[in-house]
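Shipment paperwork, digital attachment
Item: protein structure file
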Amino acid sequence: MRKHCPPLNHKLARGFTLLETLIAMVILAAAMMLLTNSWGGSFMRVRKTQTAFEISVLLERKMTEIDIEYRGKSLDEIPESKEGTFEGADDFAWKMSSKKLEIPDIASTMTGKEGGADQMLMTVIKQMTDALSKTIKEVTVTVIYKKGKKPLEYSVTTYFVDYNKDIPLGIPGGG
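Attachment content:
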């Protein structure tokens, strides 16, 4: 025996209209665009963070190498400039520059104060700054990231001190 199916009610059996389908597609497309932009922005931030991390590691590595190479040596043995590349990191290069420490002249500041400064104090300060300039060398290491539209440079500066150098201060009984 066959059962008889009741006739379908056309209002209940109706599907989606073309307009409803288009609205759903627009909403879906907008959501996909938002997700894609969000993921793309996150990817770029992750890439920038990775590059910054690589640069900091390379800076630390190169600064440690330079510190080991020139530690305990005369300041005259530190070259004024040096550069090279990193093995296995083709997008990066490094350069080093050094110069004697330049201490600003504080004589004008001291003489400009009320009462000024006496000549002996000014002479001692001048001798100390000259002596410190001869015993301290400023070394700057720069890592250059060459990939991209324009190269990015990141630098670290340290100071090498020659503790074996005599500091002539012109004071009787002094160094």
